Amino acid sequence: MKASDRYETPPYVFEAISRAFGPFTLDVCATAKTKKCAEYFGPDKGDDALALAWYGRCWCNPPYSDPMPWVAKAMISSRAGAVVVMLLPGDTSTAWYQLMYKSPDVILFHPAGRVRFLLDGVEQGSPKFGSVVAVFHPPISLKKPKQ
């Protein structure tokens, strides 16, 4: 695991995203020290978040070295009724980004600025990329109900 895979979301970033899309009930990718919600899935508890059911309004700042399994799990979970909000690298050239971009049930926001993540509570340097906030929502149908 890369050190950057353990980066924590700064409180001001989580608070801004929570105001827009929260409140969140479950942090699916955390530890007891980094959790943003009272309920969380984390390796410190022996959890395999990708094998567990995600529910409610979920927050996720996944390992940036391989976001694809987390994006796929968010898509599956939202189809089952969860709302999942993820903070991801703003790399539009990746397969996982294209998967989100092409989905009718994902809304993508590219906020201004670059997030200075934390590692063990210490702010790290400025990343070389921006971020994307992805909102995975249960499908919405605009079809007229059958009479």
C-alpha end-to-end distance: 55 Å
Domain count: 1
Largest sheet geometry: 6 strands, mixed
What percentage of the residues does DSSP assign to strands (E)? 15-25%
CATH topology: the name is Rossmann fold
> What is the name of the CATH superfamily?
Vaccinia Virus protein VP39
Strand order, main sheet: write it out: 2-1-3-4-8-5
The topology string of helices and strands comes to: HEEEHEHEEEE
Secondary-structure-based class equals: alpha/beta
What's the arrangement of secondary structure elements?
Blueprint: H1 11-21, E1 26-27, E2 39-40, E3 57-60, H2 68-79, E4 83-89, H3 95-101, E5 106-109, E6 118-119, E7 122-123, E8 131-136
Parallel strand pairs: 1-2, 1-3, 3-4
Antiparallel strand pairs: 4-8, 5-8, 6-7
Helix pairs in contact: 2-3
Structure commentary:
With 147 residues, the chain is α/β, with parallel strands linked by helices. The chain has a single domain, classed as Rossmann fold. Helix content is 20%, strand content 20%. The protein has 3 helices and 8 strands. The strands form 2 sheets. The protein has a 6-stranded mixed beta sheet with strand order 2-1-3-4-8-5. β6 and β7 form a beta hairpin. α2 (68-79) packs parallel to α3. The model has no long low-confidence stretch (mean pLDDT 92).
